[in-house]
Amino acid sequence: MSREAILAAVKAAGVVGAGGAGFPTHTKLAASADAIIANGAECEPLLQVDRELLSHYLDEVLVGLEVARETVGAERAYLAVKAKYEALITQLRTAVASRPWLQIAPLPDIYPIGDEQRLVYEVLGRIVPARGIPIQVGAVVLNVETLYNIAGAYVGQPVINTYITVNGAVAEPGTWAVPVGTTIQDVIKWASPVLEPSELAVIEGGPMMGRLVEDLSQPVTKTTKGLIILPQFHTVVTRLRSEAAALRRAFSVCSQCTMCTDLCPRHLLGHPLWPHRIMRSLAGSTASDPEAIAGALLCSECGVCDSYACFMGLSPRQVNQALKQQLSTHAKPQFVNLDEVREGFAASQIPSQRLTYRQDLVRWVKDAPFMGTLPEPDRVLIRLDQHVGMTAHCVLELGQEVSPGTLVGNLPDGELGALVHSSIHGVVCGIEDEVVIIERGGRDG
Ligand code: SF4
Ligand code: SF4
User: Fold this and answer.
1) DSSP structure string for 294-341
2) Ligand 1 pocket by C-beta < 6 Å: which residues?
3) Are 105 and 80 within 8 A, CB to CB?
4) C-alpha 299 – ligand 2 centre gap (Å)
5) Whose CA is nearest to atom 6 of ligand 2?
6) Residues 198 and 109 grouped into a single domain
7) Same domain, residue pair 117 and 44
8) How far apart are CA 346 and CA 130, in angstroms?
9) Do 9 and 138 fall into the same domain?
10) CATH of the domain at 80
């Protein structure tokens, strides 16, 4: 297949970055790079999707990696996986032996090693410019599930399932392939929560960077990687719930101990980001330290500062989130090239185990093996905005019958975004601004 045909196939399949915000993958593959990294780091506690995909679908992931490597023109490809998964690494070594273009990049068990910028430094020794992206240093980073989906696109299969770990306060933790658009309540029941509905909270994503789910009737999307169930008053839940209060307290209580800056992974990489200075500056006036305030745009929202570093219970991350919304409408990206990481980089890495302990998650860490594909639910809610870029427009009509893979949402030529497809057999029973509702049944159902 030609490069153009591959890009068209990946676009037609609606492949997006499965491990992050959903950047359209065909756009990422249109670049040229000398190295490509398969990101299997999965550094959030309790998540297990990447490991299960590598273990059960290694051939597909490697097809996706080879297709992606050839498309961007990279000489080398790296499979980045934590070194502690020895059995998996042994399995990977066999695959690598017959592929001279591929090598394993064993990773330390630290947080947030899966952050693209941190990963590029770990694997290639290159520092992505502040506010930049890996392609600026000749690298493309793709999540393992994204590579699996590229392999599907290569044989004409659109993205209709998303891989999700359900873990925490459940009797049967596991990782499932879930039809996109299944509601969160329909997914979590398969793991058998051990708490009453009134006693539990659900986090979409991981406990560090995830978000608290307010409405369990919301659907999972192509980027949902985890559903973590915890007691209502668990440390992590309380932290996620306390945003407003944290912002109010932040500026008056901060002791300027600098721990948030000393441990900030982006600061350690050399980025001009000093969370403690942001806190100090906002305690007075936003004009008092404009260099520090601008640094908020560099925050990856990894949560090290509020979940791990700050003993006062403050959240520079939430302050940065709020600042980003104000700053990003005014500021143009200004890349800052960085020559070397900061002094203290090596000594300030955060072991995942210590993080898990600090977040009171030890008792909830359970093996969540791959359990197969969930059956089609009674209805799915297919969001038209599961990706970065323009919201797709619905191409279906009420009452129309669909099958898995039927195109639901399209985009005008040249617009950044991704196509979306039906994940089940059924009939369109609702079309709203950003959601198409499909009920199971119809000719094939
Ligand atoms: S760690 Fe907490 S108290 Fe210390 S400087 Fe940062 S926000 Fe302030
Ligand atoms: S969330 Fe905190 S630790 Fe993480 S990059 Fe932002 S300021 Fe640094």
Assistant:
1) HGGGG-----HIIIII-TT---HHHHHHHHHHHHTTTPPP--B---SP
2) 254-260, 275-276, 279, 309-310, 312, 314, 316
3) yes
4) 5
5) 299
6) no
7) yes
8) 19
9) yes
10) 3.40.50.11540
Based on the structure, what is the number of domains in the chain? 4
> Does 160 contact ligand 2 (Cβ within 6 A)?
no
Alpha helices in 155-274 (DSSP H): 184-188, 235-241, 243-253, 259-263, 265-268
The pLDDT tens digits of the residues spanning 96-110 come to 999 999 999 999 999
| Shared domain check, 251 and 185 | no
Taking the centre of ligand 1 as the mean of its atom positions, its distance from the CA of residue 297, in whole angstroms, is: 19
192, part of any domain? yes
pLDDT digits (tens, 9 = 90+) for 133-152: 899 999 999 999 999 999 99
Examine the domain organization and report whether 111 and 251 are in the same domain.
Answer: no
Residue 350 lies in a domain: no
Alpha carbon of 281 to ligand 2 centroid (Å): 16
Together in a domain, 320 and 406: no
Q: Tell me if 302 CB under 6 Å of ligand 2.
A: yes
For position 340, what pLDDT does the model report?
86
Name every residue whose Cβ is closer than 8 Å to that of residue 94 and which is 6 or more positions away in sequence: none
Distance 112 CA to ligand 2 centre (A): 10
pLDDT at 444: 46
Q: What is the extent of the structural domain holding 269?
A: 243-345
Q: Which two tokens stand for residue 140?
A: 């493309």
Question: pLDDT at residue 112 above 60?
Answer: yes
> How confident is the model at residue 407, as a pLDDT?
98
Q: Which of 247, 253, 258, 306 to mutate to test the pocket of ligand 1 (most atoms within 8 A of CB)?
A: 258
Average pLDDT, the chain: 91
Q: What is the pLDDT averaged over residues 394-398?
A: 96
Ligand nearest to the CA of 313: 1
How many CB atoms within 10 Å of residue 260? 27
| Per-residue pLDDT, 334 | 65
Could you tell me if 222 and 303 lie in one domain?
no
Residue 287 has pLDDT above 90, yes or no: no
Residues 282, 329: one domain?
A: yes
Residue with CA nearest ligand 1 atom 4: 257
Q: What pLDDT is recorded for position 285?
A: 44
Q: Which of 3-12, 244-253, 293-302 has the lowest mean pLDDT?
A: 244-253
Distance 311 CA to ligand 1 centre (A): 7
Ligand 2 close to Cβ of residue 213 (< 6 A): no
Instruction: Give the rounded percent of residues in the chain with a pLDDT score beyond 90.
Output: 76
Q: Please work out whether the CB of residue 377 comes within 6 Å of at least one atom of ligand 2.
A: no
Q: 352 lies in a domain?
A: no
**Which strand (E) or helix (H) includes residue 145?**
helix 144-154
Residue among 355, 252, 264, 265 at smallest CA distance from 312: 252
pLDDT at 216: 95
